[in-house]
Amino acid sequence: MSHIEELREAIQQLHGGEATHSASVPVKEVFNGETVWDGIVEVFNLKGHPKANTAYAWLHDTGDPDKPIKHVTVLHVPPVVSPLTAVRAFIVQEFRSNAQA
Fold this sequence. Notes:
Elements: H1 3-15, E1 18-31, E2 34-47, E3 54-61, E4 69-75, H2 83-100
């Protein structure tokens, strides 16, 4: 199974609806002169979801040998309106989760 098929299944399981891959978008996020994220965001059309018609997804290396890969899925719901803002939302969520741990 390809990573795009894995991501499509993850979107459908987590959010419902039918996901169809539409694009692969390179995203690089820089903060204070340092690259904090650099990768490809897969864009999916989402049919049958009540709030979003697009979803963004990628694989994230967790650094955990027991579960090394995490499927990240973010719906196109403002303030998330692009692959870049999806990545930014993920970074903020990860920062908050780590700060509370």
